[in-house]
């Protein structure tokens, strides 16, 4: 009799921060498309991130496990995502989430054998306790990292890694690692991660992970309806004439930085869309209210040229629109890939963490972007920044040409037969094999 191969059941445990959660769910979508059954662990506030996937997949193949967010003395009640906290609170978030270990073990132990997961596809940030859950049930723990191999190689090579040391050790000890990059972008760093830090070949590069195409909102609502944003872009007569400014879900500019950027936009005369954090939504946040405050009168003065969006914005749609030519970004890796896929010039203002390594890779090594800022404390000179903004919407910049060549390689990688497409297939094949080396049937 022929062997009937069981579809893998994957338990997905994302880290509750937009830059981590969104690409993790984009990866989940690809796994679902390849026939797997998936259960995603969320807390009440992060459950809406699944709405897009729920609209595309049946409840038989996409299941939700909602557990209460564990309380922590240094995390305000009602806060369940890192973007509601300063980055310095990251260790507290790790501590709180580690307390999901016992309720998750309890949940799995109550499942019939036929419903046990074959794999836990968890965030690398959660690997210390996810690995223990996987070991308790003799299933695989595979870590997802929403960054590139250059950043991994650089960060893991540092001597002083503080509390990240345990995370990196547990990641390397997992069954395998999935990275949101493509091999052709950084082959030497992919190979270096394999040979220097891993003891096996199971490193899968599956990027650029494209957003699930089922609506503009991905977990939150925009202050301006996406259709109005699209109509505004449609009204722009020239292609590549708009600068998009966005600093992700974690970064907030100071009042001084905001004023300098506003002045530069006015001086430049370019069309722009600027996404700022919404102070009105800081209900459970511990952030300073004196941040991201648009100067009085600015919006009225630039109303013919610019659009200011507060809170969430339909970023992917904006970056892929023919009118947008450049992107002033903090260089978070997800934003870099979205800008690359959207064919826009990257204007790099790295702020923290891996932003600096991404800027080193894209700007210094690959010369496919322009540096305009230095760190989270620097304040740009409005006159100098205005010149860069005005230049950035020109077609013939060499950095734009280089980025487009990298984009072509990324698009090829995710097509059938490409390196990332094949790695996704290999990942699913590994999920079908038990830890003892036999195929699950």
UniProtKB/TrEMBL annotation:
Keywords: Glycosyltransferase, Transferase. One of its GO terms (molecular function) is UDP-glucosyltransferase activity. It comes from the Eukaryota. GO terms for biological process: flavonol biosynthetic process. Pfam families: UDPGT (PF00201). The keyword Ribosomal protein does not apply. Belongs to the UDP-glycosyltransferase family. This is Glycosyltransferase. It comes from Arabis nemorensis.
